[in-house]
Amino acid sequence: MPKLETRMARDITWIGSIPKECDICGIAIANAFVDDMTREGPWANMCPDCHRLHGCGLGLGVGQRYEKKPDGKFHKTEGWPPTGNASI
Ligand SMILES: [Zn+2]
After folding, report:
1. How many whole angstroms from 41 Cα to the centroid of ligand 1?
2. Of 12, 53, 72, 85, which one is least surrounded by beta carbons within 10 A?
């Protein structure tokens, strides 16, 4: 029960313009992107592949993964604080 409520409370959608392409490789963002700091320093909106290569991880203070849902909006799916399902 509490788990479901937590998930609902954590339904965050990306506000603002959706990145059209990956800041690193330039591929068109289709269904998912990660907003994270690169290992080189600057922040970037990355495709999942570039995030694996250049990202600093997912979680509080680092990467936030957003995925496009049927409503057409990008919902945050990973990158919650440590108490959640953050990885790395
Ligand atoms: Zn990329």
Report:
1. 16
2. 72
| Ligand 1 centroid distance, CA of 25 (Å) | 4
pLDDT tens across the length of the chain (88 residues): 455 555 556 789 999 899 999 999 999 999 999 999 999 999 999 999 999 999 999 998 899 999 999 999 999 999 987 664 545 4
Sheet strands (E) in 1-88: 32-37, 43-46, 64-68, 74-78
User: pTM here?
Assistant: 0.81
* 52 membership: H or E segment, kind and range: helix 48-54
Nearest to 36 by CA among 59, 14, 16: 59
- With tokens 């945050």, the residue in question is 76
